[in-house]
Amino acid sequence: MPDSSSRPNTFGPVPPSKWPGERLGLPQHGPSSIGRPGRRILGFAIDWAIAIAVSAIFFNYDPAANLIIFVILQIVFIPTIGASIGHRLVGLRLISIHGGWIGLWRPVVRSLLLGIALPALVWDSDQRGFHDKIAGTALIRQ
Fold first, then answer.
1. What sections of 2-129 are H helices per DSSP?
2. CA distances from 47 to 28, 65, 86 (A)
3. Which of 44, 104, 126, 141 is the most exposed place for a label (fewest CB within 10 A)?
4. Which H or E element spans position 141?
5. Residue 9 confidence class, pLDDT cut points 50, 70, 90
């Protein structure tokens, strides 16, 4: 990641990126480039399947338990292994756009917003969902 003084503003009236992650100083292709929708969706599907399996075993497939388990898995694994289990399996990891360790509050905010779904469905030209923009994170290729 570029240092904060050279990083462009990603909020407000800024022109669209030429490629996802350009405004964040990320490469167009390869390692450290923005994770594309196919990988992101597959990672999400894996995480959701894990949550459903745990819910089916312990909570008789309760819909509320599905969601709560999904959010908890995100909150636990993002700061510890740098991504959810599903994202790791498809070659993605989550970074702070400000550099350094992702911390604890970013995964909590991002996961709670992801749990209500709508913020994840609103993307910018960097292919970052609103949940990532608020948390100051980006999902990139390993």
1. 37-59, 63-81, 85-89, 105-115, 118-121
2. 26, 14, 5
3. 104
4. strand 137-141
5. low
